[in-house]
Amino acid sequence: MPRIKTMTPIENSGLDAQRSSEIFDQIARFAGYGFNKSHAAAYAAISFQTAWLKTHHPEAFFAAAMNTNLDKVDDISLFINDIRKRGMVVWQPSVNHSRARFEPLKLKKAWQGRDLGICYGLAAIRGVGIEAAHGIEAERRRGGAFVSVDDFTRRMADKTNKTALQALAKAGAFDCLDTDRARTLAEVLGYRKPVDVRQISMFDDMDAAPEIAVKALTRDELLDNELDVLGHYMSGHPLDGLRSSLVETNRYFCSFILEKSSGTIRRASMPAVITAFDVRRTNAGDLMAVVTLSDPDGTYEALAFGDTWGEIRHQMRKKARVLCNMGISVRDDERRLIIEGVSAIATREEALAA
To answer: pTM to 2 decimals?
Structure first.
């Protein structure tokens, strides 16, 4: 806050220059962090309303929250992580059932005590966009449900491009058409807009869609495609197969270390998938990295400092499967994970034997 150059108006009120200056300094200092009461009361009221909605109508709350972040895939992945921890249902994207935005829908049959679920918004798929998503929804209302990938590409030729089609295929949005994702990707990669209907070829009656030779996607490829366009794993996790054998081999997923452990564990081996990392400098000028890791229990962050970062940086690749040796710092019930070493894993056996 800039200082007032003259105290004359204040002096006229009966205060001398020194006292006026002291009062100004107090106001300036408080303005850096203080709210007036009316402002604080408004925030309190909004906070209470938000907490009430999140508690009593969580599906509607989370759907609305994600709809405000449709173009921020990473933020949506954090919401999805929270939703799953609460045992709520999220349906994968579907060209025949999803709307452009997230929407709470009633379940036909109650599941785990809940009668609502959240239908995934098509606009939240990286590469689709809100206009294409609205176009899909409008075409479905106009012409009915899509019956095949070819039917979709023909009807949506002027409203989607190849990038959007690939994104929809990777997200599993065509699974409702009883086609596997490898074949769907092959179809949309060879997609061409239909020619002008007035241009008729004498060979049109002989045309037939060629049989496409497609190599099946591995489970890891399918899941990594979901990560690319959704920002999170939707239909499973690459490390799901490890769960039954972890504790007996002294390996742990994040929920045990961050939530359930007694706080006595100070080191742990944690298998995870790298989803992101951000290199920064400490106040002392040294390099450090904030590494975002994913396992079947959720997404979490770990820190790598100095020499350790120098040793592991060549292994920092998005979607890499790794076994992290962690140091665990506990302060006021908050656990901070410090990476002390990383080794790559490719198979379940490697993860358990590392």
So the answer is: 0.78
